[in-house]
Amino acid sequence: MTEQITTVSAYAAPAPDAPLERTTIPRRAVGEFDVLIDIKYAGICHSDIHQARDGWGEGIFPMVPGHEIAGIVAEVGPGVTKFSVGDHVGVGCMVDSCRRCENCAAGLEQYCTGGNVGTYNALDKNGEPTYGGYSTHIVVDEAFTLRIPDGIALDVAAPLLCAGITTYSPLAHWKAGPGTKVAVVGLGGLGHMAVKIAHAMGAEVTVLSQSLRKKDDGLRLGAEHYYATSDDATFEALAGRFDLILSTVSAPLPLDKYLGLLRTDGAFVNVGAPEEPVSLSLFSVIAGRKTLAGSGIGGIRETQEMLDFCAEHGLGSEIELIRADQINEAYERVLASDVRYRFVIDAATI
Ligand SMILES: [Zn+2]
Ligand SMILES: [Zn+2]
């Protein structure tokens, strides 16, 4: 083992609601099955902002957000078999799980009943806080490290580690493909990846957005149709149309209206979650044997499958590359939906 990096540069929120600022954080020494990653890019996910501002409560501060990480392997532990120095790799929302429960055994670590370990704002198995991707280096067990294929540049690959897998997993589970009609609600960080991936899977894609403001983008990214949900005529025109509706928005939706857009046996799947409970008439799912479901990120095996799929189809995220000192400004722009479609931090500026 060569030099052990224990202190690295990072951008952290020192306290809830405090702006992020440059600091240093500890990284553990490279263990037997660990990979040391020289981070090149980190995406900014909406949930980074929620957590840095303690929207979900009980956050661990100082907090270094970032779970859309792309970089290059700088060192490997003696037991590592999957990776070598120089490999392009990524890290998503988890860095560990119990590895024993039914879900872990099935490759569904995101639903680990023993509690998986978040990439940041969590405690690892030794009780140490985890720090995310807004930093220059990270040490991760190879079992939670993904290979980024050569076909995808690292900057546009970073957002795939959360936005990509969060949309790929339900599209794959509910079998989006040739002959299926998929609607994507919301064209933001998640929605734009859903459109690209569903289109690449062969589905006929429709975007349902509040307005037609981003219509040109939606069609360019792979949608065949684009409708404004602010127009009631949309819900009449599209009644009974879709096999799958993927909602990427966190605003509460009138679910009965949206369920009316499904065909018999269709599914409405939430990957964005409003903070408040929602209500609906159960007749909306009884008529037509419909499914109302949710889905969270994806397992490690499926995340690799997603990366390989994206490389095969030439898919990456649409990004705005920023310097680390622009993170706070970027947060405000994300909250104002003013980004097309993902901010990515150039880690060389951290
Ligand atoms: Zn995320
Ligand atoms: Zn588990």
UniProtKB/TrEMBL annotation:
- Entry keyword annotation includes Metal-binding: yes
Which superkingdom, per the lineage? Bacteria
Q: Name one GO molecular function term.
A: alcohol dehydrogenase (NADP+) activity
Provide the Enoyl reductase (ER) domain boundaries.
18-345
Q: Which UniProt keywords apply?
A: Metal-binding, Oxidoreductase, Zinc
Q: What's the catalysed reaction?
A: a primary alcohol + NADP(+) = an aldehyde + NADPH + H(+)
Keyword Oxidoreductase (UniProt): yes
- Which PANTHER family does its entry note? ALDEHYDE REDUCTASE
Protein's recorded name: alcohol dehydrogenase (NADP(+))
